[in-house]
User: Which sequence fits this backbone?
């Protein structure tokens, strides 16, 4: 199995290296056209990468250096030129993923068709290859400044879990895939995401979702911020698929808001209890992920869309899964922890975080100190931990 996975990854590397130079040239043309410059290939003096020259009326400036200075070094809100550059990078990334994903899904599909590997193994390979494509192409097109706060050192494989996350942008799945290895650890089980079945109308989505064995759910079409109308007849099939996924070595991923959130800076949309019900029936803990800032790249509001206002994106994986006692308990904890991070890009106080993650009515100060040791740099004094709490 490891040999097959290695061969599949090598095939993806060859495909993407071949496409890399074409994609670079397309990016240079798009950027120069957007900014009104004339394209001319050039090697960056800083990194040695091939980009283009952006020729201004007064003097010639390296477009590669311009990208590096204005994208890599920028942390906050950005101006018009930086916005155009970031948007062009983002569009190139999305276009590249639309090409790379179907190509990457082909080898496992062929091996499965000829009965060389089983369906579950095909889904494992497809999920890993999808993550590889997302991670690699985000390095080629660094349209976002992504920071990751992992749940642990990733050395130990966690128990099967139900993962929940907020939903702020169409880019969320790309960021989660690209950072999965760092966010959840190298040994983390691949996730089968529960998704809206109508997304299969996009052929790339359909190929990728089917290849990875993601689990569809029927829901009436609506806009971001409108109430969801689910087809309750499909819940039995959903539970059966989730139970099978756990048995085959997958975790389950679900978005409790059930839709894109057009106002993440104000907190979450109404939270549904489906994740709690699923975790309770499968006797699995719930673990939390959080995303902040992705909506500033691609906003769920159609009137804003791809108007880039900031490149900063933060992802957070919270340690310690929990089996909640009630649906209201889950909703409150998810809203307090993930809702706050999604709005602010930072955590609530350590004491409150410990309370909502562990569900203790009487939090012991010594327990908090022990728990925080794994979340702060080594050498921190007890006084510093107390101040953080």
Assistant:
């Amino acid at each position: 199995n490891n040999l097959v996975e290695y061969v599949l990854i090598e095939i993806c590397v060859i495909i993407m290296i071949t496409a890399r130079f074409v994609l670079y040239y397309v990016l240079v043309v798009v950027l120069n056209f957007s900014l009104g410059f004339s394209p001319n290939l050039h090697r960056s003096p800083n990194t040695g990468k091939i980009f283009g020259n952006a020729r201004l009326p007064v003097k010639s400036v390296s477009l590669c250096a311009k990208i590096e200075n204005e994208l890599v070094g920028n942390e906050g809100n950005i101006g018009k030129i930086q916005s155009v550059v970031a948007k062009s990078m983002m569009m190139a990334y999305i276009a590249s993923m639309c090409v790379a994903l179907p190509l990457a899904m082909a080898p496992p599909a062929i091996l499965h068709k000829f009965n060389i590997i089983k369906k579950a193994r095909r889904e494992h390979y497809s999920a890993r290859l999808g993550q590889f494509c997302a991670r690699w192409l985000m390095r080629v097109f660094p349209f976002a400044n992504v920071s990751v706060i992992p749940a642990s050192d990733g050395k130990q494989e966690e128990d099967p879990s139900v993962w929940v996350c907020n939903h702020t942008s169409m880019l969320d799945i790309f960021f989660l895939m690209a950072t999965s290895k760092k966010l959840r650890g190298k040994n983390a089980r691949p996730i089968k995401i529960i998704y809206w079945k109508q997304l299969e109308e996009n052929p790339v989505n359909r190929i990728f979702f089917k290849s990875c064995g993601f689990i569809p759910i029927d829901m009436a079409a609506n806009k971001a911020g409108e109430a969801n109308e689910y087809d309750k007849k499909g819940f039995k099939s959903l539970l059966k698929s989730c139970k099978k996924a756990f048995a085959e070595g997958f975790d389950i991923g679900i978005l409790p808001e059930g839709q894109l959130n057009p106002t993440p800076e104000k907190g979450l949309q109404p939270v549904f209890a489906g994740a709690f019900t699923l975790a309770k029936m499968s006797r699995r803990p719930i673990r939390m992920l959080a995303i902040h800032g992705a909506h500033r790249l691609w906003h769920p509001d159609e009137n804003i869309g791809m108007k880039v206002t900031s490149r900063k994106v933060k992802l957070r994986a919270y340690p310690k899964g929990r089996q909640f006692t009630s649906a209201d308990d889950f909703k409150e904890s998810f809203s307090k922890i993930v809702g706050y991070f999604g709005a602010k890009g930072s955590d609530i106080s350590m004491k409150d975080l410990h309370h909502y993650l562990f569900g203790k009515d009487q939090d012991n100060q010594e327990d908090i100190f022990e728990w925080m040791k794994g979340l702060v740099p080594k050498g921190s004094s007890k006084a510093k931990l107390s101040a953080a709490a």
In short: The chain has twelve helices and ten strands.
